[in-house]
Write a structure and sequence with these properties.
Chain lengths: ~260, ~400
């Protein structure tokens, strides 16, 4: 379905140029942008990366989280990911396995190293904070086209480049947001900034993507993602290190059994 | 010559620690236990307050692209007034090799089976470290050879378990403890091979959408002892006997968005008799209560044993209600309150566990355990004055 819509969009743009684009509704144009983002990010197969989160409160006191994440691209469904925590040290070795899905709820497992117990957990908690940070589970989970409906708002310059401004509205249950406003780089179809509005449609958070690098001549990844919570004054800087793509990971590295030996 | 080999090995390990993926981690913790009542009149040696230290370091090294690894973890407690509680245990000393589609583990290790919270019926591979905690979640390392095969038809685990570990019991000064004292020196076995019987176990695990199903079989020496009255130096004691058993286990969890439905069922044959026991219930989660980040889980489980009052567990017709609070804050604050009530007698067991991180490397844990309405007979009777409050302050490295 995604592909068909994209092909129609492509054909329309190629044939008619600006005239046909104008004929699109704002919803169609918003969706087309989201489909193009998804298409440009398809085909990386798998990736591994180290994450460091610095949590800052209003008083400027900070604490650090470190984890490593492996991702497996799944065509036709959401990606699979495995995260292993290194810091804080009392949760070292705790591992978190997620099979994301587009419409139905994600499957999630938690591995508790002290008990050697693998626990299947409820994935209802989309809006809850990830490790006490300003990122919620829904912010860091795999972004699939069908997880939102879209609306194109306007064109605007951001960070000195041309951007589309689109709004997206979560289609899944238990989101903490009514809507998100995203600034999408027109050239590279990557997000530069996202502003989040809470369940009461009040301004909640701003996420900025910084220091983009391109991998395998195609995939753009920001080295730094900065999330500021306007309601609490807290912020989280998330930085990424040692991105590796197409490393040969397979389903067996993401099985429930593999959680027990995750390190 | 031996010394030279030893030095070479030591240098190799140090070199590995720096150059390859080898690492030390673990924790040191201080524990303070305060009993809320004076001991039973027949146990004047027991004390009211108790302070001890525990250390649990772990060495981990992997090679062969992560397909082979060595894990070594020991546990030691010192300083407790009870000599039996000051113990050392090798929790893990195992080699793991991952092949394509299956893996092999050899050495001392730990295995967890099951899904429920109130008791752990199907979890029978490791012996309980009973002096550490009454809840049965602390385990002694078990020698094993384990093969784990992943197929389209589920995960198949096969275990050969040489060498039996006796359950640890509190000594004369220890609390909480059974009265009369459990005399581990007089331990008996049904098997003529005593603690050298080689036990066999297997488990099949299958996942079907929201359903997870485990079927297990264990043939060998029961980890749970039965007690018979005995004497030591003219004093009455309890003598533990470890019977041979054949146990089949079933555990199921169904996970939907808000509900976790859980079942553990066992059928055990020992002393030429059969009995069944089960734990069944659910956990429901309220997410983001009162517009906050906190989650509140409600746990309800029913515990049954077909032997009724003859059951060797305390839970033959009991209901556990629990509340789990997770604040989802920066300090990962969480608490679990549980009450198990005997439907027949009204006896109850109360438990509160709460913990919070302090700074980046410390964690404070609070534990409260209590017994209410304990009747005059039965093993629980000897624990009725052993309600305690415990604080653990752990430093992680």
């Amino acid at each position: 379905m995604k592909k068909i819509i994209f092909n129609i969009f492509l054909a329309v743009s190629l044939l008619g140029g600006s005239l046909n684009v104008v004929a699109e509704t704002a919803e169609e144009k918003g969706l087309a942008i989201a489909v193009e983002i998804d298409k440009r990010d398809t085909g990386f197969k798998d990736s591994t990366v180290k994450l460091k989160m610095v949590l800052k409160n209003k008083q400027g006191r900070s604490s650090v989280r470190e984890l490593r994440t492996k991702t497996l691209e799944v065509t036709g469904d959401g990606d699979k990911s495995l995260s292993i925590f290194d810091k804080p040290r009392d949760v070292k070795g705790t591992a978190f396995l997620t099979y994301t899905h587009t419409i139905r709820p994600d499957d999630q497992w938690l591995y508790l190293p002290a008990l050697k117990r693998v626990k299947r957990i409820s994935s209802k908690n989309k809006s809850g904070p990830f490790m006490g940070s300003e990122f919620s589970y829904e912010d860091i989970s795999s972004q699939e086209v069908d997880k939102y409906t879209y609306k194109y708002i306007r064109d605007e310059d951001c960070n000195g480049v041309g951007c589309f401004v689109i709004e997206r509205y979560p289609t899944y249950k238990n989101s903490g947001y009514t809507r998100q406003v995203a600034w999408i780089n027109k050239q590279e179809y990557r997000p530069e900034k996202i502003v989040f509005y809470d369940r009461k449609n009040a301004l909640l958070k701003t996420l900025e993507y910084k220091d983009y690098k391109q991998y395998l001549n195609q995939y753009w990844r920001a080295d730094i993602m900065q999330m500021i919570n306007h309601q609490t004054g807290k912020s989280t800087d998330l930085s990424f290190q040692d991105y590796q793509f197409n490393t040969g990971l397979s389903e067996k590295n993401f099985s429930r059994n593999s959680l027990k030996r995750a390190r | 010559m031996v010394v030279r080999i030893y030095i070479v090995c030591l240098f190799f390990m140090l070199y590995q620690t720096q150059a390859l993926a080898a690492e030390w981690s673990g924790d040191v913790s201080m524990q303070w236990r305060s009993f809320l009542r004076t001991p039973l009149a027949q146990n004047p040696q027991q004390s009211q307050n108790n302070f001890s230290l525990a250390i649990q370091p772990e060495f981990y090294h992997e090679w062969d692209n992560g397909d082979q690894s060595l894990t070594f973890e020991i546990f030691s407690r010192i300083g407790d007034v009870d000599a039996q509680r000051n113990h050392n245990d090798i929790r893990e000393l195992s080699w793991l090799k991952v092949y394509d589609g299956w893996e092999l583990k050899a050495g001392i290790s730990k295995v967890y089976w099951g899904v429920t919270e109130s008791q752990h019926l199907v979890d029978v591979i490791n012996q309980t470290d009973f002096v550490e905690n009454l809840d049965g979640e602390d385990k002694l390392g078990q020698p094993m050879i384990q093969a784990s095969v992943e197929s389209d038809w589920g995960v198949w685990d096969f275990f050969v378990l040489p060498g039996f570990r006796e359950r640890s019991f509190s000594g004369i000064k220890g609390r909480p403890r059974f009265s009369p004292l459990v005399d581990v020196d007089q331990v008996r076995y049904e098997s003529s091979k005593k603690d050298q019987n080689i036990d066999l176990a297997m488990r099949w695990f299958y996942m079907l959408g929201d359903w997870e199903i485990g079927l297990s079989q264990f043939n060998g020496t029961s980890r749970e002892p039965v007690f018979s009255p005995g004497f030591k130096n003219g004093q009455a004691v309890l003598v533990p006997t470890y019977l041979q058993m054949r146990q089949s286990g079933l555990d199921i969890q169904s996970t939907s968005e808000d509900w976790l439905w859980k079942l553990e069922l066992i059928s055990r044959n020992w002393r030429a008799k059969n009995f069944v026991a089960l734990t069944a219930g659910f956990e429901y989660s309220f997410i983001g209560i009162q517009e906050s980040d906190a989650d509140l889980g409600v746990v309800l489980e029913y515990l049954y044993d077909s032997r009724g009052q003859q059951a060797t567990s305390f839970f033959q017709n009991d209901v556990m209600t629990g509340l789990r609070l997770v604040l989802n804050d920066e300090q990962s604050t969480e608490a679990l309150l549980g009450v198990i009530v005997d439907v027949d007698s009204g006896e109850s067991f109360i438990s509160l566990e709460a913990s919070r991180r302090l700074g980046d490397a410390w964690r404070l844990e609070l534990e409260l355990r209590g017994f209410r309405g304990v009747n005059k007979t039965g093993l629980l009777n000897s624990l009725k004055r052993d309600d305690y409050l415990q604080l653990d302050l752990a430093y992680y490295f």
